[in-house]
Every structure is written in structure tokens, then in C-alpha cells.
Amino acid sequence: MLLIADNWKDFALLDAGENEKIERWGKYILRRPDPQAIWPKDNQKIWNKYDGYYERSQSGGGKWRVANFPESWTIKYKELTFLIKPTGFKHTGLFPEQAVNWDFMIEKIQKANRPIRVLNLFAYTGGATVACAFAGAEVTHVDSAKGVVQWAKENIALSNLSDRKVRFIIDDVIKFVQREIRRGNKYDAIIMDPPVFGRGTSNEVWRIEEKLVDLINLTLEVISDNPLFYIINSYTSAFSPIVLHNVMETTVNKSYPGKLTSGEIGLRIQSSNLILPCGIFSRWEQEL
Hints:
This protein has 288 residues and is α/β, with parallel strands linked by helices. It contains seven helices and 17 strands. The chain is globular.
């Protein structure tokens, strides 16, 4: 399955090709590397007009060679508002393709007709946290990076959701889940967006191919008796959607038989109507 985030107004993928992409974030145009876009560019004129140009270094890393934009600004997705802040690592703090998952979460929570508790692991700047809080869920947001957790708090405030029940935790996700098991806390929905490689708050090493299955099995101990959904996103090129599907089939769906959907997430390229692949996903949901 391929899901395409087509409902944006404040964001557009103008063109992609030759290992780059050029996007509109609100009123600012950013040109950045993208290793997936190996095909020829469609419209050369588009590429000469930008407010920001991130150039990758031959020795690794890179920097914004052109940065004619403010330190930060906001964009909206439907009723949600997000802070955009281009970083030295080329990222902006938001992955717009995830809007397809936000829509899914909002619909599932609003139609549940009961209180829903969500656990968001590797939660980054909180796109999913904002969506779930907007839908009325109680959310626990966990990430080991203090800076992105603060960013998530700002996104909650920008979306006028400061009165919602959102708990922000700066911690290693495995250690946090282990503590939640001991506390007896339960969640109706789990979201995770694990990195390929990372380090926790105490320098714990995370490698997705080594740790993912163990973490999923650990989270099964904090799932409620009436779970609503479980979503995993991944940006690793080492996994196909089938790999993620098989992992979910033999863990989550084995313990809680339901509907399992897996595939790719993408963004439509405005100039050519091609699709830029932006990662893979697997969703388990309760069958009504």
C-alpha cells in the first residue's frame, strides 16, 4: 500500500530529482538533499528560486549555504499548527508525509467514543502527539533529546492544546517502558518512530535491527485490554514494508488479532505528479 499526504495547503513538494528536493514551507522555499530522488529534475526554473539552500559536504554533514529565512516560523495542517525551524542537519522539525498518520489517529480516537491513552515513543517534535491531543486523547510523549521535547511543547501550545492531558518525558524509551510495566500503567494506542541508530540519555546504543522486536514485545506489556491502534514508522532503507509487516504480524497481531496494514508513505511532486518515497509504516488497528 502507498499512502500519499495530499491534504496540505501550507506545504508543497515543488520538485525532486538528482538527489535533491525543493519544497514550500509556508511562504519560504527550501532546497535540500534527498538521496531517494535519483531521477532527473522536471523543471529547472523552479530550482533557482529559493530562500534556503542546504549543501551537503563532501566530507560528510553539510550546512545552509543560503539562509534567507527567519530562525523559525509556523505552518498549519488543518487545525494543527507546527513550528518550523531549519537545523544544521538539514531537517525542519516536521515530516509532512506523516499527515496521513495524523488523519488516521484523529479519526480512530474521535470515533472510539471512550477515553484513549496514547504512548508516543521516539516522539521527536510531536506531530503525532499534537494530532492525538487534538482528537481528545491523553498522550505520553517520550524522547531522549531535551531540545525536541521542548519543541513538542511549543507545538502543543501553538495548536492551542495546552489544556489537554499531555505528559512530556525525557528518557530512554526502553527504560521508560520498563518502568511503566512496573507501575502497571496501560495505554490504548502506541506510536513509535524508531531511528536506525541512536543513543539514549545514558549513552545506551539503539540499533533498529537488533532492538525493534524486543521493544515491541516490551510494549505489549503496557497495552490495555481494549487497544485501539499501534503504529510504527521507519525511515531505514534497509527494511522493506514487508519486513515491518512481518515484524508486526508476529508480535502485535499475534497477541491482538486485528487489521494490519503496511506499506510506504510518500509526497506528491507538484511539477511532475511523481511520488517521492518518504519511509515505510505498519498499522495495527482494532477491528470493530
